[in-house]
Amino acid sequence: MLDQDRLRNVIATVLNVDPALIGPDASSDTIESWDSLRHMNLVLALEEEFGVSLPDEDAANATSYPLLVVVLQELLQAP
Fold first, then answer.
1. Domains in the chain: boundaries
2. CATH code that applies to domain 4-77
3. What is the pLDDT of residues 10-61, one digit of tens each?
4. In this predicted structure, what is the pLDDT of residue 10?
5. Rounded Cα gap, residues 50 and 76, in angstroms
């Protein structure tokens, strides 16, 4: 099961924002510091934190908090 508090903290740390800003509306469109370079750093940080490997397509398309939740839940539930 995905620990969403942990996820919010990783996102907040990489994007240098308050974890309280990370919620259902958080995306690369709503958080100014969420640019392409920080997105790459975020993917790497999430892979390290959760012990998963995001497929390239998922990593490129997961540009919002809700999408990251879906991708990580799927990866963590995979056998």
1. 4-77
2. 1.10.1200.10
3. 999 999 999 999 999 999 999 999 999 999 999 999 999 999 999 999 999 9
4. 98
5. 8
Task: Return d(Cα 9, Cα 6) in angstroms, integer.
Answer: 5
Q: In the chain, which ranges are continuous DSSP H helix? A: 4-15, 36-50, 56-61, 65-77
**Is the CB of residue 54 less than 8 Å from the CB of residue 62?**
yes
CA atoms within 13 A on the CB side of 45: 17
Amino acid, res. 39: H
Model pTM score: 0.94
Do residues 6 and 23 make contact, with C-beta atoms less than 8 angstroms apart? Answer: no
